[in-house]
Amino acid sequence: MSSSENFLVDLTVALIRKKKLFVATFLMVLCIGLGYVLLTPSSYKYVTLIKLAQDGEGTLLESRDDVLANIESRWLPEVASAFKDGRGYTPKFNVDFSEVGRTHFLLSTVAPSSAGDGIRWFHQSVAEKLVVSQAELERILREKLKAQIKAAERAPGVGQIDNASESSESSAIEYLMSVRGRLEGIQSAEAKVIAQRSDDPIGIGVALAVGLIFLQSFVAAVVVVLFYYFIQRVNGVIRNEEGRP
């Protein structure tokens, strides 16, 4: 008989002789696993999408690295502190942030639905700080462009064809139109979505989790029985060795 056949025979003998231990281990692991699955609330993903401000040529008013640095080092700690002061406990969830394309940032949190109100407040607060910061940069840029427009309109040659060459007039008008276009093309920062919850929970479904728990319970029971049977066989060999003259 081959070694694999011997193993299968030993396994079958062990399971038959220790069927009570097998059933007890199987049921214990099964109850623990099912209890964990049924009592642990499902987690969902909450996302907030923020569009960054751009100038009239599509360039961000603030680099993405600077935005990330502000979120991580300033606004997240500030909002977390305000959350604790207002609610009396620290947030029991994490807020991750990442870039989406070239002009958007995404805040995401995975947590049970019971934390939804706190997550919405947290995301809303961070989004407001980012939008306010971007709005200030936009205000500065608008004032700068308006000043350039006024200076260009007062420049000699604009609207005075008789006193300026046609080429100078054309260049001045093109410059003025370019600046006005940049001013009109500014895109403000805005929060597109605030803490939108995913429809389905994160992770595997309940049915699949239950199936895996049954499988794990069976494997655990087999391992326990084999280990117990192995210990008994070793003890028997030791006793036989000690009983020899």
Automatic annotation (TrEMBL):
Say where the protein is mainly found.
membrane
Kindly give the Pfam families that the UniProt entry links to this protein.
Wzz
Its cellular-component GO annotations read: plasma membrane
Instruction: Kindly indicate whether the keyword Transmembrane helix belongs to this entry.
Output: yes
Q: How does the protein associate with the membrane?
A: Multi-pass membrane protein
The record's subcellular location field reads:
Cell membrane
Is rRNA-binding among this UniProt entry's keywords?
A: no
| Protein name as catalogued | Polysaccharide chain length determinant N-terminal domain-containing protein
Organism, as annotated: Marinobacter flavimaris
